[in-house]
């Protein structure tokens, strides 16, 4: 493994060959999670950190919302996204779920239990994923989403520039109650 900090000060660990736990993960509820998919990191300088991730760590820009780059390290539209902020840190954690039924079941399940829904249900025009963002007990923002776009033809892809406004985050009209999605 290799541990380093990005230019904003986020601690990153690159790991190879992690051994599987050897026993099945049994969740308390069948949320439909198929796997971790991406992380949103706070950046204190988006252009500087984009250069770091693309030039040093071989990430590629799939799209940008304002100055915020959505970065891929494989065919998945983004595994990392950098959102401007006054300080570093994890901005949100995304898990993919199997389908739209899981997104909507989570919405009603969480709402009924008083969990704060901070964005969605909605659809990202960038990755085309259908999403739901909610706040965990420690204030961390989590996202369930499904249908994230794959970029299979690396040679022909060109990053698109989306304006920093609510319709660039949700094409259905949902408004984010997430500071980094509301302020540049
Ligand atoms: Fe996300």
Q: What's the short version?
A:
The protein has helices spanning 46-55, 100-112, 166-169, 179-182, and strands spanning 2-5, 11-14, 33-43, 60-65, 68-72, 80-84, 89-97, 117-123, 130-135, 141-146, 160-162.
Question: If you had to describe this structure to a student in words, what would you say it looks like?
Answer:
This protein is α/β, with parallel strands linked by helices. The chain is built from four helices and eleven strands. The protein is globular and about 45 Å long. It has helices at residues 46-55, 100-112, 166-169, 179-182; strands spanning 2-5, 11-14, 33-43, 60-65, 68-72, 80-84, 89-97, 117-123, 130-135, 141-146, 160-162. Fe (ii) ion is lined by residues 38, 40, 92, 94, 143.
Order of helices and strands: EEEHEEEEHEEEEHH
Low-confidence stretches: none
Mean pLDDT: 96
Q: What is the first-to-last residue Cα distance?
A: 34 Å
Small molecules bound: fe (ii) ion
Number of E strands: 11
DSSP strand (E) fraction? 35-45%
Q: Mind summarizing the main beta sheet?
A: 9 strands, mixed
Query: So what's the overall shape?
Result: globular
Radius of gyration: 16 Å
Structural class designation: alpha/beta
Give me the number of helical elements. 4
Strand order of the largest sheet: 8-9-10-7-3-6-5-4-11
Proportion in helices: 10-25%
Structural features:
184 residues, alpha/beta, nine-stranded mixed beta sheet, 4 helices, 36% strand
Lay out the secondary structure.
Layout lengths: L1 E4 L5 E4 L18 E11 L2 H10 L4 E6 L2 E5 L7 E5 L4 E9 L2 H13 L4 E7 L6 E6 L5 E6 L13 E3 L3 H4 L9 H4 L2
Parallel strand pairs: 3-6, 4-11, 7-10
Antiparallel strand pairs: 1-2, 3-7, 4-5, 5-6, 8-9, 9-10
The structure holds fe (ii) ion.
